[in-house]
């Protein structure tokens, strides 16, 4: 569902802005910045916080595609009709 990847230039800019906003909000909670939504596909990113060794170079991102569902247990019972014209 998630994977860790090295930061791109865009990720680094986002990371630096998030850190700066957090510092500003801690200093003055009344002045929280409001951002406008950007065009394009939204990306879900999570930061690794220090003292994690990869906090300055990597981020956690959500995978774009979901894997196939792996259901636990037996397969559901499929009712097979012997007469194609029957209604039961």
Describe the structure.
The protein is of the alpha+beta class and 88 residues long. It contains one helix and three strands, in the order βαββ. Strands 1-3-2 form a three-stranded antiparallel sheet, with no helix packed on it.
Concise account of the structure shown:
The chain is α+β, with helices and mostly antiparallel strands and 88 residues long. Helices cover 22% and strands 15% of the residues.
Please give the alpha-carbon distance between the first and last residues: 42 Å
Order of helices and strands: EHEE
Q: Largest sheet at a glance?
A: 3 strands, antiparallel
Strand order of the largest sheet: 1-3-2
Radius of gyration equals 24 Å
Which spans have pLDDT < 50 for at least 5 consecutive residues? none
Secondary-structure class? alpha+beta
Report the sheet-strand fraction. 5-15%
Q: Round the mean pLDDT to the nearest integer and report it.
A: 77
E-strand count: 3
Q: Summarize the amount of helix as a percent range.
A: 10-25%
List the helices and strands and how they pair.
Elements: E1 2-6, H1 9-27, E2 45-47, E3 58-62
Antiparallel strand pairs: 1-3, 2-3
Descriptive terms for the model:
88 residues; alpha+beta; three-stranded antiparallel beta sheet; 22% helix; 15% strand; elongated
């Amino acid at each position: 569902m998630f994977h860790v990847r090295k930061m791109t230039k865009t990720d680094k800019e986002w990371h630096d802005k998030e850190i700066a906003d957090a510092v500003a909000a801690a200093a003055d909670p009344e002045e929280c910045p409001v951002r406008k939504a950007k065009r394009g596909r939204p990306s879900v990113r999570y930061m690794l916080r220090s003292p994690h060794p990869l906090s300055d170079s990597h981020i956690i991102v959500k995978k774009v595609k979901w894997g196939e569902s792996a259901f636990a247990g037996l397969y559901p019972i499929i009712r097979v009709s012997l007469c194609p014209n029957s209604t039961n």
